[in-house]
Amino acid sequence: MKPGQANTMKNLHPLSMLTLAVMAALWSPNGRGESYFNPAFLSEDTASVADLSRFEQGHQQAPGVYRVDIWRNDEFIGTQDLTFVAAEGAAPPAAGLAPCIQRDFLQRLGVNMTAFPALASEPKESCVALENLLPGSVVAFDFASLRLRLSLPQAAMSNSARGYIPPDEWDEGIPALLLNYSLTGNKGSDDDSHYLNLQSGLNYGPWRLRNNGAWRYTRNNGQRHSEWENIGTWLQRSIIPLKSEMVLGDSNTGNDVFDSIGFRGGRLYSSDSMYPDSLQGYAPTVRGIARTPAKVVIRQNGYVIYQSYVQPGAFAISDLNPTSSSGDLEVTVEEKDGSQQRYTVPYSTVPLLQREGRLKYDLVAGEYRSGNSQKDTPFFGQGTMIVGLPGGYTVYGGTQMASRYAAAAIGAGKNLGDWGAISLDVTHARSQLADDSWHEGQSLRFLYAKSLNGYGTNFQLLGYRYSTRGFYTLDDVAWKRMSGYEYSETENDKNGVPDVVSYHNLTWSKKGRFQVNISQSLGDYGSVYLSGSEQTYWGTSDSNIWYQLGYAGGWKGISYSLSWSWNRSVGIDGTDRIVSANVSIPFSLFTPNGYRRDSVLDRAYATASASRNKDGDSSWQTGVSGTLLEGRNLNYSVTQGHTSNNGSSGSASANWQATYGTVGAGYNYSRDQHDFNWQLAGGVVGHADGVTFSQPLGDTNVLIKAPGASGVKVENQTGVKTDWRGYAVMPYATVYRYNRVALDTNSMNDHTDVENNVSSVVPTRGALVRAAFDTRIGVRALITVRRGDRFVPFGAIVREVNSGVTSMAGEEGQIYLSGLPLSGELLIQWGDSAQERCRATYTLPQESLNQAITMMGARCERE
Q1: Number of C-alpha atoms within 13 angstroms, CB side, residue 457?
Q2: What is the residue range of 763's domain?
Q3: Stretch 349-371: mean pLDDT, rounded?
Q4: pLDDT band (50, 70, 90) for residue 4
């Protein structure tokens, strides 16, 4: 090199020198020669450069354990830690690494080990040469995205369904105490009411102990009533080898063959959720129309299972969690003007179809259980079975036995392809009623479901049941009297007379029942739907009827709907017919800059609604609603309106979905009364590491453990973030499926880092599974380290001996580390010999905890 060139190199910027070094490493005069890093390109003093030989062969990353996303045949399997070893000749993007794949890992991926003896004979702990032992397989690792793709020939796979997750990956969870609470209240001018629901539980291993209870308090016309009701207590666990669930205590029977009823006893039944989605499906949506701000109460089997407040207009409750898998839902809409709507929403399943070879069973023994004091509690046994046959056929049947009742059912279903699916069954029953009379009869049930995707039509459920005059159900036999009214023990009218909930008359046995749920998409013009049911009886021309017809559409962010409902109940005077119209207009239509995500105005809507019933009572409301806060987790609504029979009215409400629960409050006024209502709900989890408060818990939940990482948001979870200790609960996990749990790194403070912010869990039913994250809490520092009168070599490996934090030395001895304790010791190594390492002690000032980054110097001494 000429002197002038040497001076030029000396005057180059350090970044330019590093760039030249990389270019020199990637290019060689001999196109086929090996790459070589010349330390002189980084410094004239080559002794100040660490041993970089590992980069010469393209091994750009050190072997070790990395957390990667695993994809098998273009299907996401999960995220887990895998050991990676150096792979000779591996090119980017593999970064010179290859996964250490072991036998157990291949079994979890679904490889048929018995078909490859050489593969099965490999030592359990050894790394398998997959591409040699499994011809046609391809392993590809992308280090930049930490994604491992495995292409495995179909012939090498076990005959498992798409989406199959091996049971050994299912997580039974950790021991925990669980509490879910929901409190709603109303304080009015003339009456008060409060409702508290407590769902408590204990998890230990595979066992789940649960209790569901509710307290109700009312004050009306000077009369007070307070009551605690135990809705149910039960012990449950999964029986994984049988792909079944077992329940002991208070629960409900299945609804596939017979109507669902409550019982106190034991149940063992097949679990659909243990099977992949590809081998498996109905929950009711309760719709209605409120003319004024109203309270909606839903009962099932005599228990109040839902209570909330809705604004005027059409409403839909789609997050219902019934106590039973079926059973009619009795809906009461209590308007502010004192009027009430009552109707029944049928809750039953779509046609009974199973895949070929699938057997589904349900065994129950126990006492009949109901929240109605007018019913007996006979002991009964029940067994049902459903079998999938070739050709799209399914056969099913069952029996139900009690001291005064015996029934047997048999039926079949067929997948008709383009014509949908149907099932048809007949049940024969022999019954002794409350007057000791015996009756025999049959009931014929037809169910049909079809989705005409090409036309946008969905027959979610279309069914009809015809029963002869002598047919009764076990629920009918349980009545103590042949006829009578069921009164509410907590609701009274203005004269103090108990409110009628339902009426029964066993001489009017059920005759025909029709139910329908149809929706039709109109493309750009919106959609229409029809939901309803009609039950006729022997011995009377009266019938239970409920129908709702609606239309909904949108245009440029404007949404509008029109709904009509009609309901009537046997034995209860009055028929409700209501028509309602609603429109919502976003304020973003009127802003000159268009829609902006961070604009509060663009998240606000102008609303208007109007309704009228058959008696001519009409009402209208206008208002403003929207969301506030950075996480859009505060909803608000303000309305002003008028009713024909009560004058002017208005309301204001807000609901905050916070970290430790949800809080809601509302105020309503009209000419004759003012009232304030509130809602409070949340969860509490006790575990080995302490107590964590959360939003309302689901049946299955995830405990996030990121010690010290306080206030970190959880991705895709509104309002959920870690508490002051670094713990949080992600509610409503999907059972027997991969659940992605991710921390939002953008919400971490300057002193928090995490090794990997994504975890994956597969919980069993009712479990509280733990997703642990390796957090580093401490100071972020840039430390310049000298060894004698020189800087430590460029590229030297650095590790803080106590915390395990690692890094690499840069130019002029600068080392960036995060998660450092205030004082500690750095082990710095640039070669294999004892002379090529040293230790540097450091002490950071206390104010470092309040700084984004701290800069300081340190001395490195030989060991």
Answers
A1: 9
A2: 681-776
A3: 83
A4: very low
CA 14 to each of CA 11, 25, 379, 837: distance values in angstroms, whole numbers, following the listed order = 9, 17, 86, 24
- Mean model confidence pLDDT for the chain: 81
User: CB of 291 within 8 A of CB of 335?
Assistant: yes
d(CA 819, CA 781): 9
Answer yes or no: are the C-beta atoms of 588 and 594 closer than 8 Å: yes
pLDDT (0 to 100) of residue 696: 93
Strand partners, 226: 217
Residues 6+ apart with CB under 8 A from 24: 36, 37, 38, 41
**Residue 446 corresponds to which tokens in the numbers above?**
């037809």
The reply to whether 723 falls in a domain is yes
Of 527, 528, 530, residue with least CA distance to 517: 530
Residue with tokens 């070929």: 356
3-state helix, strand, coil in the chain (%, to 5): 10, 55, 35
pLDDT in tens, 401-440: 999 999 999 999 887 766 767 889 999 999 999 999 999 9
Question: Both 769 and 783 in a single domain?
Answer: no
Assign 39 a pLDDT band (cuts: 50, 70, 90): low
Alpha-carbon distance values, 531 to 316, 344, 349, 516, 518 (Å): 12, 12, 15, 6, 6
Number of domains in the chain: 4
- Are 73 and 122 part of one and the same domain? yes
Is the same domain home to 797 and 765? no
712 vs 718: CA distance, rounded Å: 12
At 251 the three-state DSSP class reads strand
790 and 769 fall within a common domain: no
Place of tokens 């067994």: 383
pLDDT digits (tens, 9 = 90+) for 768-798: 999 998 887 888 899 999 988 889 988 888 9
Mind listing the pLDDT tens digit for each residue in 274-309? 877 655 533 456 778 887 878 888 877 667 777 777
Mean pLDDT for 136-149 is 82
- Compute the distance between CA of residue 133 and CA of residue 652 in angstroms, rounded to an integer: 69
Q: What is the pTM of this model?
A: 0.70
pLDDT at 10 over 50: no
Can you point out the beta strands (E) in 495-633? 498-505, 510-521, 527-537, 540-555, 558-569, 572-586, 604-613, 618-628
Name the domain boundary from 725, 744, 776.
Answer: 776
Residue 152 lies in a domain: yes
Judged by DSSP in three states, 244 sits in: strand
Of 191, 146, 269, 293, nearest to 637 (Cα)? 293
Instruction: Give me the amino acid identity at 726.
Output: G
Please report the beta strands in 276-355, taking only residues with DSSP state E, as ranges in sequence order.
286-290, 294-300, 303-310, 313-317, 329-334, 340-345
